[in-house]
Amino acid sequence: MLRLIFTAFLATFAMALQAAPKLTITTDADTVVLDRNQLEAFPQTTITTTSPYYEGTAEFSGPSLKRVLESAGLSGQSRITFQALNDYQVDADLDEVMGLDAIVATRMNGKPMSVRNRGPFWVMLPLSDRPELDSEEYHRFMVWQLNRIGLQ
Q1: Domains plus CATH for the chain?
Q2: What is the pTM of this model?
Q3: Helix (H, G, I), strand (E, B), or coil: what is residue 68?
Q4: Which pairing describes strands 146-151 and 22-26: parallel, antiparallel, or unpaired?
């Protein structure tokens, strides 16, 4: 009986975590926190692509990275840092990243992404549409389990 109660508790806790993932965007002047519903309220872009991180082709949808950053008051910054749940970070020139047609994917093949499936958010690049991006130089920007973006 105790095992059943513990399992039910874990399942409820896991659903609560998945139900309300958040993306924090910080600038020198402000911090904006967006949840999945807010990200999905922005105009959505769909990328159908292959990737070295999964088999075959997959469809990703989410707002453009540009739109997400504009919601945080993008103005005059020159650097961007992506941070994942495991503290993996990538720092880059903001202009370079803005030229990659990246999205903040909230869904893969129409389903919300869980942490187990590299979600809740994943910076996705259109590798199939722009083959020049399909290299390690650009793969580093494809941060999965994204939870924080810093603008400097």
Answers
A1: 22-151 (3.90.420.10)
A2: 0.85
A3: helix
A4: parallel
